[in-house]
Amino acid sequence: MDSAVTAAGRALRAGDPLGALRQVALRDDPAALALRGIAMAQLGDLGRARELLRRAAGSFGPREVLARARCRTAEAEVALAARDLAWPPAALARAARTLAARGDRENATHARLLQARRLLLLGRVNEADTAASRLPLRASPPHLRALAALVACEIALRHGRAARAHEALAAAREAASQSGIGALAAEVEEAGRALTLPAARLVTAGEARSLTPDEVEVLVGAPGLLVDGCRRVVRRGGHVVRLGRRPALFGLLRVLAEAWPGAARRDALIEQAFGARRPNASHRVRLRVGMARLRRELRGLAEVRATADGFALVARGTGPVQLLAPPIDSPGASVLALLADGEAWSTSALALALGASPRTVQRTLAALAEAGQVRALGRGRARRWLSAPVAGFATHLLLPAAGGFG
Length: 406
Fold this sequence. Notes:
The chain is of the alpha+beta class. Helices cover about 55% and strands about 10% of the residues. Among the domains are: about 135-195; about 200-325, Winged helix-like DNA-binding domain superfamily/Winged helix DNA-binding domain (Arc Repressor Mutant, subunit A, Orthogonal Bundle); about 325-405, Winged helix-like DNA-binding domain superfamily/Winged helix DNA-binding domain (Arc Repressor Mutant, subunit A), CATH 1.10.10.10.
C-alpha cells in the first residue's frame, strides 16, 4: 500500500477526516475511494459516503475479499448513522466472518459492534447485550473500547441498572481519552448527561416527584408494590408480572395505582382502558371482564376490590403502592425518544425500531408535527423526520424494548 493511502488511514483513525482527504481527494483507485467514503462519513455527508463506499466495493477485484469486507463494514456504519435500519444485516454478518477468518481482528470486532448497535436501535436490548458481551475487546484499540463501553452504558440504562451504567461510562471516558479523538470524548460526555437527568416520575398517594436513574434502580429493589409504567410490569421484590402485551389491563392497573390508597371511579377506568368518554352498559361489562383478568394476573401480589363507585387496589404485605411513570405522558413518547438523538429518521426506520406498522407511525408523526414537536424534511420516500433533543430529562426509559410500541 502506498504512503498516501497509509497516511490517510492513520488520519481517519485519529479522527481527522480533512487530513485524510488531503492525501487521497483526487484519486479514484479502490483504496482511495474507500478512504474518501469514510472521511465523508466522518464529516457528516452520509449520502456521498455511501456512494463512494459502494464504488470502492465494486472496484476491488474478485481476489480482494478482505478489502470488500472492509467496505461493507464501513457501508453498514454509514447506514446505521443514517438510521437505515433496513440495510441487510446478513451482509454485515458475512463481512464480520470474512474479516475474522482473514485475521483482521480489529475490523471484525468493529463489525460485530455495529451489529450490537443495530440491535439496540431496534429495541432488542437483550440480544444487543449478548452480542456486546461476546466482543473481544482486550486487544482492541481505544476508540473501539470506548464505543463498546457506550453501548454497554446504554444497555444498562435501558435495563434500569444505573450502577453498571456508571461503570461503563467511566470505562468509556478512559478509553476515549486514550484514543485522543475529541469528537469521541464529546460523545461520551453527552452520554453521561443521561445519568444526571430525571428519567421517570414516582407517584405515591397522589404525589409525584422526579427520579434520576440511580433513584429508579433503588426503587426497583425497595419493599412495596411497584407498578412500572415505563416497562409495563408490576413487581414486588423478585416477583414480576409482565403486562407489556396486555395494554388494556395495564391501563386499568395504572389508574388503580394512581388512585391508591383510594378507589378509582368506573368512568375513569373505562376511559383509560377503552377510550370511551360516554360509558354504556357494554363498556361496564367489558370493565368487569377486564378486572377479573387483572385479578388473575396479580394473584399473590395484590387484590382488586370492588367499591360502591369503582375499584381499589390493595397490596398484599407491607409497603405502599407506587407508580413509576414515564417522564412525559404522550402517545408519541417513544417516537420522540428515538428522534431525540438528533438524527433524521425515515418513517419506515421508526416503524422497524418501534415494532409498529408504518401507518401507525405516520399518524403519530402527523399529530406530533401538528403540535410542533417534530418536523419533516423532503418528500415521498426521501422524507425524514427530525426533532430537537428532548430537554430536561433522560429518554432511555421511553425507548421501546423488544420491539414494543407503547
